[in-house]
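Action item from last week, closing it out:
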Amino acid sequence: MNVRGEDGGRRIGGEEDDFFFEIPNMTCDLPRFDVENTPSRRDGVSQELERECRVLGCELIQSTGILLKCSQAIMACAQILFHRFFCRQSLVTYRPEYFALGCLFLATKVEDDKKRLRFVINVSRHVMYTMSKRYKEGAFVEPLPLGGDEYHEMKTGIIKAERRVLKELGFCVHLNHPHKLIVSIQGVLKIQHEELGQRAWNYMNDSLRTLVFISYPQETIACACLQLAANNLGIVLPRTWVELFDVSFEDIDCICEDIKDLYSHPKIFYEDIIGEISAQAKSKGSFAYNNAKMFEFWAVGERLQLQEIVSIQQEEAARKDTPPATSIQTHSHSRRHVEVGGRHHHLTDDSHHHHHHDSNDSKTNYNIRASSHHHHHHHH
């Protein structure tokens, strides 16, 4: 959208320049949030734990978005909404996974590239599995059976999270995309340097995990990312270049520090962080983290192996302790007739039925994988 400065859009670059762009004020610049005194902090969550939960949520959004072939605009929008939401609500009350995925699902709609919730669920569970300690290189997570309770609960959780974010942010979800600013600023400065732009873009992707997007205007962040990239590549920018954009060097230094700080932390693991935050939630009497089977991750086939090991152990134990139980087994499997209301019923029929249902389940399982695979292929 391009507006001629009348309705309060700010003009950057002079009239006589062959290159200028405007920043229209149709997007939501929410008030600067108090990042020192967030609701989670008031609930006793430490600054470090809150930072880790935010990084976890943002990594989940970014990695899931990449696998779903979302544009960077979608992932940026989702991460900014995620940060804004947790400046208004506490991590003790709301699970970060649901809200990360709710924000991603919402962002795909805001940016007009809606993804199916089923793919969001299956792909995100795989991403969470790769973030956990149990992840084995090259393994895939076992998908939730379609139509099962856990699948339904996860689906409902994401939809509720999406609504909650809309309500909490007053439907103010359209954002100006900071990535475009990098290109525009490079144009104003007449610096044609591809590596500089790419480096700055990467820094901006990383900065989405920090709190800079809820603390500073986007022009400032774009300038900081360019400055960081220029320092990195040994490119000297004009001395007072940031004054063109009403940005102060102090702010730029603060943002650069925040981004660099991100790289100094060790890799985070899903279970550690969720374990810590759920303990904090329980101590505050919150049930947000209780009985969440859909957030337990098994690799494909891993549970089967475990079940086999257990049944072999049971068989061995049985062999040691008791005489062979063949007589009992033949008895239970013999076809006995029971009179019920004048009709004959086979006792064994039921067990066949049950068995059949199981095989159906595994079919559904396979279908999920096949269809999501097919979908990606098709997109590609």
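Closing note: Strands lie at 10-12, 21-23, 337-340, 343-346.
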